[in-house]
Structure formats: C-alpha cells, structure tokens
C-alpha cells in the first residue's frame, strides 16, 4: 500500500512573497544566504513584515553546511525565541535552517508556528523534502538526514531571487534537478505518482535549463526551472534517489565539488551501469527517451538509451560543466588515494539503498574511475 502526503504548502508565482505580509506580532528569524546580505531583495522581504513584527536576520551560512554551523545557529536562535523561521537561500541555507528549526522545536520546545523555505537556487528541492544534508567537518562526510520533522511548513517559489544566480550555479543546481528526477524515476520506491512528477521535471529541465543559463533568461524561464526543482523534490522525497547521489556526496565531502556538478559528472555512467544490470530500468529509460522526443518510438532499446545519454551529455556541454575531477582541478593522484574510502562511504550512504541495482565495491570503484 502507498500512503503519502505533500505536507508543505506551496505558494508559487512572482507574487508568492505576499504571503509574508500576513504576519502580525510575531518574532521572525530570517536565516539567509550571505549573497543576500545588504541586498535590496532582502530589504524588500523585510519591508513586507516590519513595523508589525520583530525581525532578526542571521547570515552565518556556508555551502555544504557543517553540523557546527547548525549548533551556532541554535545558540543564536535561543536569544531570539522566534515564532516564525524563514530560510532564504540555496539548498545549503535551507538544510542548515532545517537543522535549526528541528532542534528548536524538539529540544528547546520553542513554539515555532511556521518554518518557511524560500529557495534561491532551482536545484535541491529542499523546500519540500524531508532531507537535510549536513557535513561532519572532521571526517569530511556528508550525512543526508531523513526525518519528516524537518519538512518546511511552507515553500514560497518566486523567480525574484534566482535571477542573481551566476551561470555556473544555475548550471550545477539545474543538473541536480535532472539527477533527482532521473534517479527517482528508477529508484526502488518509485511508483506512478512519483514517475509523473519526475517526468514533468525532466521535460522542464531539458527545455528551460539551457534558457536559464543564458543572460536572456526571462522570469517565466526561471519560474519553470523553479517548479521543475520542486516537482523533482516531491518525487524523490517519496521514491528516493540512488547511486549517483551516494557517490556524489563523497566527491562533495572530500573535494568540495559542488553538489550538482558532482552528480552531473557521475550521471551518464551510473545510468549506463544500472541499465546494463537491470532490464526493467533499461526499458523504463528507453521509453522515457522516446516520450521526450529524443528518438522515434520505433527505435531499438539500445538507440533509445543512446539518445538519452547523448541528450544529457549535450546539456552538460551547453552548460560548460566540467566532466571529470581533473577538469574541476583535482589532480588524479589525489583522487586515486581516496577511491577506497569514497567507495566504502558511498556503500553506507542512505541514498545507495534506493538504487535499482545493488552495486558492489568493485562496481563503484569502476564507476569512480570514469570521473577522475
Ligand atoms: N535537502 C535536500 O533535499 C537536498 C537535496 C539535494 C542537495 N542538497 C544539498 O544542498 C546543498 C547544495 O545546495 P545548492 O545547490 O542550492 O547550492 P548552495 O546552497 O550550496 O549555494 C551555492 C552557492 O551559491 C550561492 N547562491 C545561492 N543562490 C544564489 C543566487 N540566487 N544568486 C547568487 N548566489 C547564490 C550561495 O551563497 C553559495 O555560495 C548541498 O549541501 C547538497 O548536498 C539537499
Ligand atoms: Fe541532489
């Protein structure tokens, strides 16, 4: 039996920030990405609530948020006693805020009426997921924590903040959306509902990500990618992701490869690997390639899979994504030393469990070797 809900209330559209004008007499903590510090966008957000609420802002956010930053945020929050928490930023900011809101509610018994996420990247889908990815700085391990209690109560999707995203961040976070949807599509917990969400997200990414990468991107293009990100988040939150994510977390932990870029590097190899070991996966991806119009419905399964891989690689090239760790600036000798360690940790990563084929140690070493 499948039982699931979408508990996060989603407000989508250029006017979604109007929701913030509804608060009165609240203590509001805005946890925001440092790129917004002193910006007119942040001033605008504050102007929607100030006068009738007490507002504090906290900007101690870094990419791949370490657990120690969550602890510092909790200490800051204790002095504020917020009744509303608003996270505005990329996945790192939202994940860190999830940790802060979670501990505020569970450990400190704070009466936080609403935890609101406003994503500024079209990437992680974190605004609607039960995941928070935190890093142990001492061991360099990224831990995806899974608990419905970290789900934001509300998500506001507006193109306003994503507009300042530089091309490389648009590219990498956009590739993360594609990987969420393509992995969810064949993950062990996938079903017809999650497939529908994933398929729509994939279609939107292929159409709108190249447009968002260009300086001519319109608000409509940005909004479509933002919705793709949210759809993919809703899909993988139920279906799971897979080996690409389990392996990519190690590239992020060891070499600080941006999350979406690490996923992008591994994606074609893991798809080919999963297809060659699980005929149902091959069939499903082949059907998808034809549905997306990459190839005729009458083509062979092999041609259909080839067309999907070709479309992915074309997109990576359009977005100027480095294809290997060497391209990213990590020399081969350095990455080779970490191969065994990364493989052991990928096998322990919770995303591995949702991969449609149980890759073994040697398989994963072989897959990593493609991207050194
Ligand atoms: N919780 C989940 O469900 C989930 C899913 C996938 C990934 N993640 C995690 O999320 C993190 C990655 O998040 P991300 O890809 O959104 O990147 P990010 O949040 O790490 O941001 C990357 C950089 O972009 C900047 N930035 C963000 N938005 C910007 C904008 N609009 N304009 C200018 N600069 C901007 C940030 O300040 C930062 O320097 C990783 O830690 C990853 O593991 C979480
Ligand atoms: Fe991801």
UniProtKB/TrEMBL annotation:
A GO molecular-function annotation: alcohol dehydrogenase (NAD+) activity
Stored Pfam families: ADH_Fe_C, Fe-ADH
Family matches, as InterPro entries: ADH_Fe/GldA, ADH_Fe_C, ADH_Fe_CS, Alcohol_dehydrogenase_Fe
Alphabetical UniProt keywords: Oxidoreductase
UniProt cross-references to Gene3D superfamilies, sorted A to Z: 3.40.50.1970, Dehydroquinate synthase-like - alpha domain (1.20.1090.10)
Domain (Fe-containing alcohol dehydrogenase-like C-terminal) ranges: 170-370
Top-level taxon of origin: Bacteria
CDD domains: PDD
Residue ranges of domain Alcohol dehydrogenase iron-type/glycerol dehydrogenase GldA in the record: 7-159
Entries under PANTHER family matching the protein: ALCOHOL DEHYDROGENASE (PTHR11496), HYDROXYACID-OXOACID TRANSHYDROGENASE, MITOCHONDRIAL (PTHR11496:SF83)
Designated name of the protein: Uncharacterized protein
Taxonomic classification: Bacteria, Bacillati, Bacillota, Negativicutes, Veillonellales
